[in-house]
Predict the structure.
Amino acid sequence: MRLNNSINEYGLVAKLFHWLTFIILLIQIPLGFYLVRLDFSDLRITLDEIHVIGGILVFYLTLFRLIYKFFNKSPRFSPEIFIGQKFISKLNHFALYITILTVTISGIFKKLYNGEKLDFFLFKIRIEDNFDLADKFYQIHILSNYTLIALISLHIFAVIFHKLFFKENILKRMT
């Protein structure tokens, strides 16, 4: 397996970025919804810390993935794919990146404006609390999570649709 992307397939680095992000989000999204319903307790504090660490990891993975993507172009589309599919694919990927960054950044600012100190592994940040802004970022966090769920669903639906109707295994390029 190649380290970098080829014309037909994603390389190991791109695959690791993709699947690590997916696995963490697969945990993060349900955990976030669970936390909303959980009463304040030691369990909630522990799970919230795990959720914050996961969010920061997703933020870093997405930034590094975008930097990597800038230097290592994605594989070409199959020649059979029409221009509308290419456009929808590129639009969905762009929206996924923007939404993931929106989810993570809004979560970070929600915590910071609640007066909490965040550990970004290399440095720590604490800012003056502002509960109105914390609430606004929380609302953005929730809405962007629903958007992310919709975009991930569309992404998975596209893989299934290609397999069933076009007999094309596009998932193979990322596995």
